[in-house]
Amino acid sequence: MSTATSAGCQACPAHNLGNLIKLGIDMENYDFVVALAGNPNTGKSTIFNALTGLRQHTGNWPGKTVTRAEGGFSYGGYNYKIVDLPGTYSLLSTSLDEEVARNFILFGQPDVTVIVADATRLERNLNLVLQVLEITDRAVVALNLMDEARRHGLTVDARTLARHLGVPVVPTSARSKEGIPDLLQAISEVATGQYVCKPHRLRNEPPALKQALAELVPKIEAAFPGLPNARWVALRLLDGDQRIIEAIEKGELGDLTRDDPGASTGNLAWQLEAVQHA
Ligand SMILES: Nc1nc2c(ncn2[C@@H]2O[C@H](COP(=O)(O)OP(=O)(O)OP(=O)(O)O)[C@@H](O)[C@H]2O)c(=O)[nH]1
Ligand SMILES: [Mg+2]
Fold this sequence. Notes:
Radius of gyration: 19 Å
Distance between the termini: 48 Å
Strand order of the largest sheet: 1-3-4-2-5-6-7
Strand content: 15-25%
Bound molecules: guanosine-5'-triphosphate, magnesium ion
Number of strands: 7
Largest sheet: 7 strands, mixed
Mean pLDDT: 83
Structural class: alpha/beta
Shape: globular
């Protein structure tokens, strides 16, 4: 298990929090947007608070975060806006708080999506990890609750997991801030392009599905130029996802993509939320 850095390492600049400047609610002039996604109760808000100095509500039951919260931090000469999302088990979810998370991950176009996974329930958590890796090229997995995993005698081979997933995997125990410096380093490497992710993707569709996607994806791209994740939208349409069908019928996906891409990336997600819940 490659967990905490050795004691000697803790003193070197790469492994302490001295390089982190918590900016609280000051998110002006940010260079990158980071989304914190993950199953409920995995420590997303605890990580958010550690990085921003804010006090987003945390507690030991799922569903505490129901809308998104935003904060800022500075690291390695760049300013980051970080968005704490409600917990979600899947990107196919339909509950309101899960939809807030899903819309931001899909349409908010974060520069880095951090997927916070519970190291004691890795198998269940990998479901969302793989779904997110289907739709983004830039992600980091925070393997949180490592202290709990150790207590239960569990070890996780983070290096091998990272190799299989194609993105950095950083073991953390957010409550005691263990691993947070390594997480920051991984976020900055992915954000700045120093680390190029090669996300694991499932591409063994049956021929009929492959054919349907080959027809549908170009049509969606033509109808909604600039829409990220057209392939994902096509898969949802083929699956009969009512929310996505409505968004297409009412032209809402078009409204999204007409947004100025240079403007706050968060606007995209807010617009979709607003129209869907109007
Ligand atoms: N032992 C241990 N507890 C942790 C760790 N990280 C977070 N916690 C605790 O786990 C509980 C859930 O943490 P939150 O940060 O609220 O989790 P969340 O993912 O934001 O939860 P939702 O918003 O409901 O999805 C809290 O009681 C935290 O103190 C960790 O690494 N180790
Ligand atoms: Mg939370």
